[in-house]
């Protein structure tokens, strides 16, 4: 069952609320990931595949940000995750730390290893709004063209890893994967880059393993009771 909440967005005090969110999840030994990407980048489809692999090893909850619907939350709930909270942001272009705080209140924290947030489809205003996550991931698809890194450099600079999605469509689109990866390396030489096709299930296992490693590495740096 997906819980749907419609909290008001305020960015007032966002930093201090984000800090509180981070403290709450750290105290519970949980790692929280914020997945951002434009509308239709393939975030939900990639998460569906990822969660089916992660659910075997970890207790995962999802917080989904969507303006009005809960289609994505329903799909992600069907993967068998422990819990899903849908935040309907209405006209707001991104989640705020306050909204995520309301969602965290709904989750059984003592049972969880990992919380994955699917942010609202947008790579401008999501980029500098801290939700209290430990890691930020980015999904960008081969159908979005070659200029994304120049148009939205902060999205790529602030990410821990990027999934370049829908690689099964490479024969049909004007997209040079090698040149794109070179651009990304110039922008952020630490960025971990994963070409994936959720449709063909290619690269999805590597992406899931990355998240598993983030969980284990992240936990070494936080206080686990
Ligand atoms: N060909 C192809 N289509 C995909 C892939 N991943 C997602 N899609 C399609 O892209 C559209 C948007 O995907 P979705 O996961 O909802 O994107 P989101 O808005 O970022 O969550 C849907 O029609 C998906 O079926 C993929 O790997 N290959
Ligand atoms: Mg989605």
TrEMBL record:
InterPro entries with a match to the protein in the record: CobW/HypB/UreG_nucleotide-bd, Hyd_mat_HypB, P-loop_NTPase
Keyword Chloroplast tagged: no
One GO term (biological process): protein maturation
Pfam families assigned to the protein according to its UniProt record, in alphabetical order: cobW (PF02492)
Domain of life: Bacteria
GO molecular function per UniProt: GTP binding; GTPase activity; nickel cation binding; zinc ion binding
All residue ranges annotated as the CobW/HypB/UreG nucleotide-binding domain in the record: 33-194
Record's keyword terms, sorted: GTP-binding, Hydrolase, Metal-binding, Nickel, Nucleotide-binding, Zinc
Keyword Hydrolase: yes
Family: Belongs to the SIMIBI class G3E GTPase family. HypB/HupM subfamily.
Name used for this protein in its record: Hydrogenase nickel incorporation protein HypB
Species annotation: Desulfallas thermosapovorans DSM 6562
